[in-house]
Amino acid sequence: MKNNSEQNFMDIENCPINYAMGKIGGKWKPLILHRIQVGVNRFGVLQRAIPMISKQMLTSQLRELEADGFIERKIYAEVPPRVEYFVTPKGATIFPVLAALAAWGKSQRAEAGQ
């Protein structure tokens, strides 16, 4: 039989919110997904559209989003090579959640008088 602290750990590990936040949570992934969705889909343009993110962090977050199947990368055989990112059908499933989060943030900001 598991004690309470072991049971709490198991519940947290199996929590669907914890899983979802592990995939798309954090400061940058929602912003990156949004920017790609609206057509900001080249690395340099993404970096300019999110000026607070470092090159290394943007690279890391793009790789994680691609590995998790939320975005795909297309490399064009040009000189110099051009790389563009696109939201996958799996990635598109997160947009209703992000829209709800944006609406909540907007209402909270209004309540705070900001």
Q: In words, what does this structure look like?
A:
This protein has a single domain (26-111), classed as Winged helix-like DNA-binding domain superfamily/Winged helix DNA-binding domain (Arc Repressor Mutant, subunit A, Orthogonal Bundle). Strand 1 (71-76) and strand 2 (82-87) form a beta hairpin. A two-stranded antiparallel sheet has the order 1-2. The chain is built from seven helices and two strands, in the order H-H-H-H-H-E-E-H-H. With 114 residues, it is mostly helical. It is globular, with a radius of gyration of 18 Å. The protein has helices spanning 4-13, 16-24, 29-37, 43-49, 55-67, 89-92, 95-111; strands spanning 71-76, 82-87. Helices cover 61% and strands 11% of the residues. The longest helix is centred in the last third of the chain and has 17 residues, at 95-111.
